[in-house]
Amino acid sequence: MAGTTPALDAAGTEALDILARARADRRPCPPVRTILPPGDVDAAYAVQSAWVATQLAAGDRLTGRKIGLTNAAVQAQFGVDQPDFGMLLASMDCPQGARVDTGRLLQPRIEAEIAFILARDLDGPDIGPDDVLAATGAVAAALEIVDSRVAGWDISIVDTVADNASAGLFTLGQERRPPGGLDLAACPMLLWRGAEEVSRGTGAASLGHPTIAVAWLANTARSYGRPLRSGEIVLSGSLGPIVPVVPGDEFTAEIGGLGQVTAVFG
């Protein structure tokens, strides 16, 4: 992983162990915000970085990033007021057509997003939306399956950051489009569970424009020594409220100009 993994103090080590046990035992844990310094996002990112390092050491591979909490409706759901980011690993990628195993998840929920596939590094100072567009090779419709390890999704910003921004799994639609000529802020999103519409929104739900969200990520990740690299996938944030998932569910999202993406849960 790009950047240096910071050494954890006793509190960070304890938080890392609690979250790791929740994953291994398949049992949600209490919030870790009572262990880490109150409101200390830097300490939470250190825990996240340490967990990702263990996965890479075990043979997993970094494939991109996810931006969380960009949507005002999602922020309201969880009582937080700022975005965060996490790391996408190869093991999280669910190909279209493959059934998603809910046994890999603890408390899954789903959201529709626009994925950016980078053709160039985003590693300069003061990255802006135009820089994001210039560095993007293609965009695609995506579904992110988020999954908190904290019981009851009782999370603060510290809890979700330490928990790799509540990352679970993700899947990308097959259609790829160059971003030029697309109005990514205005594009409509509809999400169905079977024939029932369960969420809707537009690209503007992600910090006003998805490129603004990716620019925020590029600048923030660089400040933590983890700049965005060519070839990475960036999930740019939810376009509508997130929806609980149970085995047997089938979700389809359609994003204007980007086509459809589907996830079927077993």
UniProtKB/TrEMBL annotation:
Nucleus found in the keyword field: no
GO CC annotations on file: cytoplasm
GO molecular function, one term: 2-oxopent-4-enoate hydratase activity
Stored Pfam families: FAA_hydrolase
Domain Fumarylacetoacetase-like C-terminal stretches: 100-263
Top-rank taxon: Bacteria
InterPro entries per UniProt: Fumarylacetoacetase-like_C (IPR011234), Fumarylacetoacetase_C_sf (IPR036663), Hydratase-Decarb/MhpD_sf (IPR050772)
Keywords in alphabetical order: Lyase
Keyword Nucleotide-binding: no
Name the UniProt record assigns to this protein: 2-keto-4-pentenoate hydratase
Organism (species): Trebonia kvetii
